[in-house]
Amino acid sequence: MKQLIAAILVAALGWAGYWGWQAHSLNSATEAWFDARRADGWEASHDSYALRGFPSRLDQTFAGLTLADPETGMVWQAALVEILRLSYKPNHLILAFGDNQSLTASGQTWDIGSDGLRASVVTGAADALVRVNAEAEVLNIASSRGKAVALAGLTAAFLKQDGSEYRLAVQATGLATEGAPVSGAALPDSFNGLRADMVIGFDRSWTTGTVTGPRPQPRHIALRLAEYRYGELQLKLAGDLTVDSRGLLDGSLTLKAENWREILRAAVEQGYLPQGLGDALEQGLGLAAQLNGNPRTLDLPLNFAGGRVSLGPIPLGMAPRIILP
Q: Model pTM?
């Protein structure tokens, strides 16, 4: 019995020593990371920091976290961030976020409020990102330029495929916009479904180091399906796009829209489209829909070329640039 007790004590002391060594190493690595960011000219600070979790966990808690990259102008501030891991499984992290954070990039700031926002991050050899899963019961995002969006039942997954290709899947059970530009008597005030599934080829692979920059840039997007439902309106997109070094898109997506007239008329009634343009669009798109055999359904190519986008033969203007800051 004495030998058994002695063995248990030795094992307990050994594990305590191992946990203490891991905690010390993690604290040192964290301090070195913040020092390296500051040496690069970043603002990298926090109001408080703690590491807990003995005997089987290594849980880090940051309060009042600020990270600002002077080269890109990106600033992230978070009231609370927890990085949770098992001491015997260091390559699997759980990130839990507080209710409020903000992100500044490209000259505008997004205030982010959330309920239950958390992510699971799995890394592999050479700190490669293998899998990132995220979820939130509610996610509210408000831009300094007056735009706001709220999502409910949000789930997302970012999975490494072959080489520098990654699959991105996103789904939300509800989506609403403040002062939605497509609201009217015939339409509901919120979306009731959103999902997207695509494979993105980047110019290089993602690692934990590339998260702080410079970040990999997308070069090819294979959109398997993007779909959202807004009352009776249903929009679906699928197709392939290439992205050049300037972030310009080239390629084509197939757009299928059901009950599209209602949302177009509501946009005119609310003043988001001039009456003449709305009438012209309805006539042109109505003719295209009739040629396809169903006047309530559009089935047209969304073409991208030279930095511009057109819906079938109808030019829509400048296309967005796809550049990760």
A: 0.86
Spatial distance between the Cα atoms of 231 and 268, rounded to a whole number of angstroms: 18
Beta bridge partners of 175: 151, 191
The encoded tokens of residue 28 equal: 């040192």
* Structure tokens that stand for 125 in this block: 């050899």
Instruction: Map residue 8 onto helix, strand or coil.
Output: helix
Least confident segment among 206-220, 245-259, 260-274, 306-320? 260-274
**Model confidence pLDDT, tens digit, residues 108-131:** 999 999 999 999 999 999 899 999
| DSSP string computed for 11-70 | HHHHHHHHHHHHHHHHHHHHHHHHHHHHHTT-EEE-SEEEEE-TTTB-EEEEEEEEEEET
Strand blocks (E) in the chain? 43-45, 48-52, 59-69, 74-86, 89-97, 100-105, 108-115, 118-123, 129-143, 148-160, 165-172, 174-177, 190-191, 193-202, 218-230, 233-243, 249-258, 297-305, 308-311, 314-318
As a whole number of angstroms, the distance between CA 115 and CA 130 comes to: 26
Backbone CA torsion sign across 313, 314, 315, 320:
negative
The helix or strand, by DSSP H or E, that contains position 292, with its residue range, turns out to be none
